[in-house]
Each structure stands twice: as C-alpha cells, then as structure tokens.
Prior knowledge:
This protein has five helices and no strands. It is mainly α. The protein is extended, with a radius of gyration of 18 Å.
Amino acid sequence: MWWSLNVHVGVIPLGILAPEFGLSLRQGIAASVIGTCMGALCTGFTGTLGPKLGLRQIACSRYSFGFWGAKLCSVLNVVIGGGFAVVNYVSVHVISLSIPVAHILLRWS
C-alpha cells in the first residue's frame, strides 16, 4: 500500500536532482534506494509500536514524544504534506502542458 502511494509524478523531480549534487546515475539511484529503505524502516518500526502497546499511532506518538512533542509532529506532518502537494501540483501541471490540448485549456501558466 505505501509503495503505491509514494510512486507518483512528484518523485520525478527529486530523482532529477542527483546530478545537481554531483552524483552519477548509479550514485543517484543508490541514494534513492537507501533513502526509500530508511524511510520505510522508520515507518515500519513506528507501525509496530501500536500493536505492541495496544494503542493507535497518534497515541503512540504521545507516548514517545509527550503531549507537546506530538503536537509538533502533527504540525510538521501538515507542513510536509502541504509541500508534497505543491510538488505534485506543479509537476502534474508542467507535464500536462506537454499535451497539446491541455496547453490550450491551461493557458494560465
């Protein structure tokens, strides 16, 4: 499920940034794979805390970070979600402009 949610148009610009940081194609692919695995491990680990403690995930974050720390995590989650939404909207808009009919319909760019 998580793989299908993270494979979308918004990830393409992130992969294109590897040469900007001086990475070769192999190094860029390796960095993407390592970053994806680290993110999956963190998500998987926090997902195992719920059944172990008998709590939902939001309650587990309160257990781990305290009441105000969990609020900070919630705010950061909203900010990160908004950033991903902006990346997705801009990427899809640029891709849709490459379609001749969409260019006529989306002249506001």
